[in-house]
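Journal club prep, notes for RB
We'll compare a predicted complex against what the paper describes. Inputs for the zinc ion case:
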Amino acid sequence: MADAMTQSLTIRRPDDWHLHLRDGTMLQAVLPETARHFARAIIMPNLVPPVVTGAQAAAYRERIMAALPEGMAFEPLMTLYLTEETDPEDVAAAHASGLVKAVKLYPAGATTNSASGVRDFDKVRATLEKMAEIGLPLCVHGEVTDAEIDIFDREAVFIDRVLDPIRRATPGLKVVMEHITTRDGVDYVKSNPERLGATITTHHLVINRNNILVGGIKPHYYCLPVAKREEHRLALRAAATGGDARFFLGTDSAPHLDELKEHACGCAGCFTATNTLSILAEVFEQEGALDRLEGFTSLNGPAFYGLPVNEGTITLSRGEPVVYPDKIDTEAGPVTVFDPMMPLHWRVD
Ligand code: DOR
Ligand code: ZN
């Protein structure tokens, strides 16, 4: 609910439908950044080694809960990393126990720690059929990995060559297109209402590819899928703020140590957990859509996943620009917080 002059906005407590928490000291450093504002998050399984089995997901969940500071509440929604060796019965058992809320598909080689991902989609057919039967969503990193496909075209080509055939072959499967970056992704969701949703990150609403490459290379704006042309950013903003419930927030907040980002072969990922809600409020205000922020951050995701919305609320207040730290510290070194290149007037109370 926004008050008369929209200086204050109270919304249901948000969830993050795509988050990288990592493990060990990194987990310890980044978990509070998310738990401060978010009630739940879909936890990505691309650890080394990946979280493939129900037993691995249960152990990872324990490590997350052990890293949660006293007095903070947070519910990790666990996922399994789909491999060609995944056992459909193990997936079904992990779902039935309530532990696992989605399975993640990485095409092999598409991104960070995706070497164990899928090469031959026929080899995961039985798992996808089982997931359709039990209503367990598939979260998809939608990029082809063929060397001859230009990196800026990899999402659009994936939709035609991989995603659409998968959905036709397994019509009952619920699919989340993760971190869409193109108008093609938006259009595909809009033209396929059945069992299809998409997450949109905070950073893809803010940056286009010029921000990565003009005036010197900016490693902290490099992520995958890589940010595209301005017309695509505008399509994402229209989708996120347009009130269509099939689009919801998945930050893809993906921390890497600065020394690995600022590197001759820099890692992909933007770390946005710290300032995501202030950035989103600014973006939604710019689009005249503050009344739709709650749908994007707090209502559409639970509706897609068939989960209850959160009981608690958060309040955002408008005022002098909020100053966030440039970096957070981890035991292994600093991690740079995403710089939205604009003043942020909304703070979370
Ligand atoms: O930028 C990204 N970083 N994209 C991904 O798909 C993976 C993520 C990571 O794990 O760092
Ligand atoms: Zn991700």
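Talking point for the session: The radius of gyration is 19 Å.
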